[in-house]
Amino acid sequence: MAGYQLSVCAEMVFLDLPLIERVARIHELGFGVEIWGWADKDIDALAATGARFTSMTGYLSGNLTDDEEIAQLLQSAEASLAVAARLNCPVLNLHGTGLNDIGLPVKPVQVVTGAMWLKAADTLRRVAQLGERAGRVFTLENLNLPVDHPGTPFALAADTLALVEAVNSPALKMNLDLYHAQIGEGNLIALIGRCGKAIGEVQVADVPGRQQPGTGEINYRAIARALQEAGYQGTVAMEGWASGDSTAALQQFREHFTV
After folding, report:
1. What are the strands, taking DSSP E only, across 105-215?
2. How far is CA 56 from CA 10, 34, 104, 110, in A?
3. What is the pLDDT of residues 25-36, one digit of tens each?
4. Is-catalytic flag, 141?
5. Catalytic residue among 34, 69, 141, 201
6. Does residue 28 carry a catalytic annotation?
7. Is the dihedral of CA 196, 202, 204, 208 positive or negative?
């Protein structure tokens, strides 16, 4: 029996329902629940669903490299920790830079300099200190540049791994998104082995189309076996669209990760 737990992003399935009803439906089906930004959500109503929240976005604005933007990121990370406490959500997710409402960087970056790497590592140390004090974990998610997030710095899984290892804190881990990694890097099973204990969460969707596992080119049954063999005990979250009926899509997700 796999040691990991399955979760589903409520932002991308049951789209005909209001968000609170999506959360309740996912919970009824036996999955954990993930959400993105919290500023436009009724936190008390979310908490009242009784759902097990596994991850949420851990900032509202800002980035890792510009002083004014760093201040915004740290301030909104603290506010996000307060919301996470209300939802009993253990993990808060970050990106290499602030993203707008369609997933594009607010400030696109074409060349990442050495100074930017050093500043990002320092900012993430400060974020990790916030997480340590609150008893929660921030994760840094890899993204893909060719399809969804052009202009995002620190986008590759290799980049997020380097930053997480540089900070070396139990309160900062990788959110290893295998959909993004397949587009940006490939060789997913070797990537899982290389990232190892730096992984704080795994997100999945298939390529192409960003739909549930089993709809595209990624052999997610082999991924599931690799995670089990690696002893991974965290969350595997479907952050993808349903190809048709959402209930059927979630069942297909579960089948591919039942090993």
Report:
1. 137-141, 172-177, 199-204
2. 11, 6, 18, 28
3. 999 999 999 999
4. yes
5. 141
6. no
7. negative
Average pLDDT of every residue of the chain: 97
pLDDT of 230? 94
pLDDT of 2 over the 80 cut: no
Model-level pTM? 0.97
What does the pLDDT read at residue 1?
Answer: 56
Q: What angle do CA 233, 238, 243 make, to 5 degrees?
A: 150
Of 236, 215, 212, whose CA–CA distance to 224 is shortest? 236
* Domains along the sequence of the chain with CATH: 5-256 (3.20.20.150)
Q: Which of 34, 69, 201, 239 is an active site residue?
A: 239
Does residue 211 surpass a pLDDT of 70?
yes
Token pair recorded at residue 163: 């930053």
What number of other Cβ atoms are within 10 A of residue 100's Cβ? Answer: 8
- Give the angle subtended at the CA of 34 by the CAs of 146 and 36, to the nearest 5°: 55
**Selection from 131, 59, 40, 45 nearest residue 87 by Cα:** 45
167-210 pLDDT per residue, tens: 999 999 999 999 999 999 999 999 999 999 999 999 999 999 99
Q: How far apart are CA 192 and CA 198, in angstroms?
A: 10
Rg of the chain (C-alpha set): 17
Six-digit token string for 31: 């999955």
Q: What is the token pair recorded at 14?
A: 């049951």
